[in-house]
Design a protein that fits this description.
Length: 129
């Protein structure tokens, strides 16, 4: 199973993004290999807002319509509270959403992220290649 981050959703959607081609090739390989994909609702909200703001509503709608292609975990109060504590105590600029992602990945024993965000590697995860 591979975790999908906002950075991957954005790179897939924006043809002008420097990671677009790499994201598209990697996504096609993941689909060909039939590797399960998972994200969480905070990533979806973050991604939809980013796509709508930068690329327009049609791009955001396209992502929303594709959510059947991957598993979406809904974040519970306990995980949110733990992530908020880590985020508030953090000395680096890691977002609350990233802290939620890291905790969820550890909880579900997911080691690989489809992401273009070095914070995942800094947190001890592998980036899909």
């Amino acid at each position: 199973m591979i975790f999908v981050d906002t950075s991957a959703f954005y790179a897939l959607a924006d043809r002008a993004d420097p990671q677009h081609r790499r994201a598209r090739d990697l996504f096609e390989r993941i689909l060909r290999d039939r590797t399960a994909l998972l994200t969480h609702n905070y990533i979806l909200v973050e991604s939809l807002a980013l796509l709508q703001h930068r690329l327009g509503l049609p791009a955001a709608r396209a992502l929303q319509e594709s959510t059947r292609a991957f598993e979406v975990v809904w974040i519970d109060h306990e995980l949110h509270a733990e992530a908020a504590i880590r985020w508030a105590a953090g000395g680096r600029s890691v977002s609350l959403v990233d802290h939620v992602s890291f905790l969820l990945m550890r909880r579900l024993q997911i080691q690989t992220a489809f992401a273009f965000d070095s914070d995942f590697e800094d947190a001890g995860f592998e980036l899909a290649r």
